[in-house]
Amino acid sequence: MKSIPPITRALLIANVAVFVLEMLVGLDFMCAVGGLWSVRAQYFYPWQPFTYMFLHGGFVHLFFNMFALWMFGGLIEQTMGGRRYLIYYLLCGLGAGACQILWQLFTGENAPTVGASGAIYGILLAFGMFYPNERIMLLFPPIPMRAKYFVVAYAAIELVSAFSTTSNVAHFAHLGGMLFGWLLILYWRQADRRPRRRTSKFEGWHTADYDYNLEQRRKQERVDQLLDKVRQSGYEGLTEEEKRDLFNLTR
Predict the structure, then answer these.
(1) 123 in helix, strand or coil?
(2) Peptide bond before 6: cis, by omega within 30 degrees of 0?
(3) Residue 1: its pLDDT value, please?
(4) Full 3-state SS string of 133-175
(5) In the chain, which stretches have pLDDT less than 50?
(6) What sign does the CA torsion over 180, 182, 183, 185 have?
(7) Strand pairing partners for 202?
């Protein structure tokens, strides 16, 4: 656990702790209070779009979500930085919940939604965008696949399943997590490249200084160079020095 970055470690502990609480007080009660219900349901409360992502329907549900969080979350946290990663995780979960609510309003469904899957799908999307050429070994069947194709395949499967199956899986929550993750990464990329405006007061009037921090801009250029190399040749294509640079600049 000490080797896992702090935000990912805290999320793992929080999800497991809430699951233990479910075992103690009962899943039905936890779902009634913290699960994500339709806004038309009598059990809907305003905190549910946040709390639902820490509840799980059983040990298998929890295990696979936490396995994916452990497998991909730490690397994405190191790439984004802890603060931005936490914001990303929570907004993907909230976005997934919003999409699920819209789907429930459209279909009239009233069953509660639980699980971190929406936020986890956002992390998978981030992995595919930051490390598109990294190879992932699929479990069923056991074949290697580049991350960008893996993410596209998952999104396609979820989209088809959303309209063709009647299972209790919240497919639109998964798609919503990926959608909000994609929009957020695009927004941050544009914001990072945009010159920032710093206003300084001087004798009663303000001046704009666009060259606000040369050192920060040099660091960002170095990160962009390293990420470009990762996209071309994969993470293992970096030298040990480049890996240290990427970790130190993005922590």
Answers:
(1) helix
(2) no
(3) 65
(4) CCEEECCCCCCEEEHHHHHHHHHHHHHHHHHHCCCCCCHHHHH
(5) 199-211
(6) positive
(7) 205
pTM here is 0.72
So what's the pLDDT on residue 13?
95
Cα–Cα distances (Å) from 165 to 128, 158, 168, 172, in that order, read 26, 10, 9, 12
State how far the Cα of 208 lies from the Cα of 16, in Å rounded to an integer: 49
The upper half-sphere exposure of residue 79, i.e. CA atoms within 13 Å in the direction of its Cβ, equals 21
How is residue 170 written in tokens? 């919240």
Token duo for residue 221: 């250029």
Length of the chain: 251
Q: What pLDDT was estimated at residue 171?
A: 76
DSSP-assigned beta bridge partners for residue 167: none
Is residue 96 within 8 A of residue 173, CB to CB? The reply is: yes
Q: Residue 96 is encoded by which pair of tokens?
A: 């997934």
Share of the chain above pLDDT 90, in %: 30
Give 173-193 as a DSSP string: HHHHHHHHHHHHHHHHHHHHH
Residue 56 exposed, middle or buried by CB count within 10 Å (0-12, 13-18, 19+): buried
CB atoms within 10 A of CB 134: 20
- Cα 145 off chain centre by: 21
21, containing H or E segment: helix 6-25
The single residue listed with the structure tokens 């509840």 is 55
- Give CA–CA dist 113/166, Å, rounded: 15
State both tokens at 153.
């395949």
Delineate the domains of the chain, giving CATH numbers in brackets. 6-192 (1.20.1540.10), 197-250 (no CATH)
